[in-house]
Amino acid sequence: MKRAFLIELTIFRDYGIQLLGLGLLVSVLVGVGMQTVLVAPSVITTMFFMMGVMAAAAYDEQNDWGRFRLTMPLSRRDVVLGRYGAIVVLGLSGMVIGLAAAFLVSGLAAMGVLPNNLAAKLVLDSEATYGMAFSTALCMFIGATVASVVAPVYFKLGQTKATQYLPTVIVLLFILPVIFLANSGLFDNGIPGLDAITSILELLNTSAGVTVICAVLVVLSAIALSVSAFVSLKLYESREL
Question: 0.85 cut: is pTM over it?
Fold first, then answer.
């Protein structure tokens, strides 16, 4: 697995450097443009998880790399686990870049480099810091979940065929359920379990509660990726290249 992981990182090297630079620029522009540094890390984290999956699948079909790789001393298990390792590294790199940009912009605001009317909105206090931590963890979970759904499709069908089906998969799993639940009238008498959800959200009012929720989101992200890796391995083992 280690060899496959290092190969993935080597392939991602140039693309990753470009993506990290772009992520830093986007984070700064989003923070200044929206006059808040809270959303930049979450946006970049989600983006990097999803782009990592798509970019990796695209590389597989360049110069028939996917087939050539199997002639190397690598098992299909190594290939799958190495790919997921690279996706996680890229996603977490996006998180680091987003957080670094947020603290950079906030630091410039605190030093008075930015205009006063803008600086006051960009300086991070303890409450804003916890809010940024929660939004980043939540979007990491969203990005990991989307990557967990998309990656097995790529492993089963390859990048070309998967591109034809993924829009339908995304719509069926993430969009239609929301539209149906919002317009079906099922929740006219209240949402089942709303009290429990409200109680969980109340935890966001305390630093300890935010820490617990962030930890839970990290664990759920790891579980989603682990299950996805297991499914991808089964699909990839049965795929003829």
Answer: no
